[in-house]
Amino acid sequence: MDQITRFSESIKFKTSAGNWDEFLKFHQFLYESFPLIHKRLKVVKINNYSLLYQWEGKTDESILLLAHMDVVPANEKEWEVPPFSGVIKDGFVWGRGTLDDKCCVMSILEAVEKLISEGFEPKRTVYIAFGFDEETKGYLGARATAQYFAQHNIKIDAILDEGAAIIQGILPQIDPPLALIGVAEKGLASYDLIAKGDGGHSSAPKRNSPIERMAKAIQRISRHRSKVHLTKAVEEFFRVCSRFMTFPSNIVLKNPKLFLPFIERAFEDIPSANAMLRTTMCVTILNAGMADNVIPDTVVATVNTRIIPGETADQVFQRLGELVKDLQIEVVKNEKWEISDPVMCSSLQGAFFNELTTTINEIFPESVVTPFLTIGGTDSRHYKSICSNIYRFAPIKMNSQEMSLVHGKNERISIEGYMKMIDFYYNLLSKG
Ligand SMILES: [Zn+2]
Questions:
Q1: Among residues 61, 70, 135, 402, which one is catalytic?
Q2: Could you tell me the distance, in angstroms and rounded to a whole number, from the CA of residue 242 to the centre of ligand 1?
Q3: pTM above 0.70, yes or no
């Protein structure tokens, strides 16, 4: 079986949350597909479905590569091909997981298998951890694996996870694709807002009902602009961008501290750019009412916040409380929701960071490498207490249209793109 057929096969396993048997079948498939890995590397299963591989090196240095086996569900009716068919057509492999994140799982293993077949022995120990619940918090996969490292006193020098890629057309004036390395990650926390009051019959309504007060609160939260924090990751990103800009944008982005108010205004209405500068808050769940003629006595709204490095989840919790204090609304923590502080900036000089940028330049010479702030959450956040050098980069080149395929319909990766992923991990791993 060649690499593309193997990749196509991997897509056929419906490894989404709840389909636990599919994960076991997928493990068996990996076992049969990569015989050398399973002979040479130690494999530990964590919580039944997570896989942790250990490729013992000669020094006491170690790195950890992360990827996840789980995929989000797919609505077959919307797709041009069945989402779990792994069909190969028009130069692409199609299916759920081809971009997020079975491409990483499979290409990492392909690279390792090839290196072993050539007799390569790593200097540092290489750990590879594949989670199974990244799309649903990562508590049983990534978090438990991080605890395993802590319990066994295993130190990790650097981690590489997904969370950024090579993006074409990120800003209008920039021609070359930018290889974004997520060197920091925003925190995430959700809180519940609770408004209580008298219920009653809707035929004789009173003012200031819980719904009315909650509506005011939601409007305030949606319009609220948290203070701008220029993080090191974003500052470095702006500096790289400035090299490709014309006057006056080049001067502005080269000196972001000086022109911060200007940048803030320019970015305010571009959601993804605004999110790089500040903590955001967004109401995502609203619960109230049972019948059309009954005034509910309790309204609950859930606010999802994404926290900029430099602030903490606690500060955001306090701020939410301040925002709704006069509306007699309580802000509470709910066990159901994750509260996770931001992950601070990793070193931009260490040996692994240099190897990462060198490898990107080798495989994607047309791209320009830049530090970046990862805005979404990745499995790697669960490892922040055991490693301070975490980098988020998947070696996939995408334009904005292709980016919408992640979690979307007709997800697919080009055969050429997938083969480059294998080359990338091969070159990276052969450096140490
Ligand atoms: Zn993913």
A1: 70
A2: 30
A3: yes
pLDDT in tens, 292-347: 999 999 999 999 999 999 999 999 999 999 999 999 999 999 999 999 999 999 99
Residue 342, φ and ψ in degrees, nearest 5: -60, 160
Catalytic residue among 61, 100, 133, 134: 134
For 10, 90, 100, the CA distances from 257, given in Å and listed in that order, are: 47, 47, 35
Expressed in angstroms and rounded, the spacing between residue 118 Cα and the centre of ligand 1 is: 30
Q: Residue ranges per domain, the chain?
A: 3-171+342-429, 185-340
Report, at the CATH architecture level, how domain 185-340 is classified: 2-Layer Sandwich (3.30)
Token look-up 């897509």 returns 11
CA of 135 to the centre of ligand 1 (A): 7
Verify whether residue 70 is a known catalytic residue: yes
The class (CATH top level) of 3-171+342-429 is alpha beta
